[in-house]
Design a protein that fits this description.
The protein is an alpha/beta fold. It has ten helices and 17 strands. Helix 5 crosses helix 6. The longest helix is centred in the N-terminal third of the chain and has 15 residues. The chain folds into two domains: 56 residues, Orthogonal Bundle (Arc Repressor Mutant, subunit A), CATH 1.10.10; 184 residues, Rossmann fold (3-Layer(aba) Sandwich).
Length: 257
Amino acid sequence: MSQTYIPADRQTRIQRLIKEKGIVKVIELSRMFNVTELTIRRDLDVLEKQGVLDRTHGGAILRHRMKTEPLYTEKDQTSRVEKEMIGKAVNHLVEQGDTLLINTGSTTSQVLRHLSGKHLTVVTSNANALSEIDDPDIELILTGGSFRKQSNSLIGIFAHTVLDQVCGSKAIIGVDGLSIKFGLTTPVQQEAEVTRRMIDRTQGPVIVVADHKKMGVVSNFETAPIKKVNILITDAGIKPEFRKALEELGIKIIIAG
C-alpha cells in the first residue's frame, strides 16, 4: 500500500479492520500501511486506551463491552451445544474426593448436570444445582444467601460466611467475560465477590469454563486477574491468536468435544 495515512486515519482503518476480523497482527498491519512495526504498536496503544482493543503479543484482539446483563433464561439458550460439551469435559478433570467450588451461570449449570461417577463434595452459589445434581455420591452444599432471580445465584454475607469455612480442591468458574488485560469480569458486583472468594478458598487449580463468545468480553466488575486462571475449557471457536496469548501466560487450554 503506497498511500500515506496520517495517524488518526490509519487508526480509524485499523479499528475498522479489527471490528471485521476480531484480531489484527502488527507485522501484517506494518506491511499494509507501509510503516514500521513500532508505528503500528503506537497506533494499537492509542486504540487500547480508547477501549477498542486489547494488546496481545504480536497484535491485538477486539474488546467487546457487555453493557447490560442478560437474563439467565437468555444466556441458557445461547451456545447450548458448546456449553454442554464444556460441561461434559469438566467431569474428566475432577477426581475422587474432590471438593469443588462452583459459581453460578448457564455454563456451570451444564457442569453440575454432567458430574457423575465419583464421590464429590460440591459447594455452589448456583441455585440450579438443586435440580441439576441427582447423583447420590455427590454431597451438595449450597452457599446460602440472598437469591438473585436474574442469574439464579446466591449472593451476600451468608454466602461469604460459608465459603470462608471451605477449602476447595478445585474451583470451576463461569464468566461473563474473559480478557487478557482485564481478566475475568461480570456485570454484578455481588456475584464477583462470591466468585472471588471461591477462587481465594481453592488450594488447587482454577478452571474457567467459557464458550468462545466470552473471549475478549469485558464487563463492569473484575472477578479475578487472568493470572489466577490455570485451565480454560472452551470450544473450537476460540481464535488461534487468542488461544496462543493465553497459553503464553501459562494457561492450559482444553477444547471440549
